[in-house]
Amino acid sequence: MIPDSLKFKKLVMGCGNMLFADDGFGYEVISLLENMELPEDVGVIDAGTGAPYYLMSIMDKDCPVEKIIVVDIIDFKLEPGTLKKLGIKNLTKIDKYNFDAHDMPLSDYLLKAKEAGIEVVIIGCQAKRVTMPDIEVGLTDEVKNSLENAVEMVLEELKE
């Protein structure tokens, strides 16, 4: 049975953990989107560190998802707060997606989604500081200042 949170054609998933400074970027973008009027066919999920579990459900043949927009931090050695739209071919360059804390690489599930005909887009933000395992709640100023532009990038992707 498909969870109600996945019964949309377009799905925006915020990834990361708000307890580790800039790793909370995905959560913050989702929080902003949840307070906006979005089309009926768009769902938003704060996936936290559980994105692989949501993606497993999306693989169900009855799931209507046609496009996934993942919002997360990246480390491409850019200026902190820099936003970058990434496609599926960039997944191998994102260390976090190849080995996660639960030994369930997110990249595998995103690649399978793509193979199943689901469009996959990643809106990444260059982190300045990720404090794991030390707890630090709150984004750095550079990442916080990119939130509105990140929301705009997501809204543009939803139009396509």
Automatic annotation (TrEMBL):
The keyword Cell inner membrane does not apply. InterPro entries: Pept_A31_F420-red_hyd_d, Pept_HybD-like_dom_sf, Peptidase_A31. It holds the Pfam family HycI. The keyword Protease applies. One of its GO terms (biological process) is protein processing. Signal peptide: none annotated. Keywords: Aspartyl protease, Hydrolase, Protease. CDD domains: H2MP_F420-Reduc. NCBIfam families: frhD, hydrog_prot. Belongs to the peptidase A31 family. PANTHER family: HYDROGENASE 1 MATURATION PROTEASE, HYDROGENASE 2 MATURATION PROTEASE. This is Coenzyme F420 hydrogenase subunit delta. The lineage of its organism: Archaea, Methanobacteriati, Methanobacteriota, Methanomada group, Methanococci.
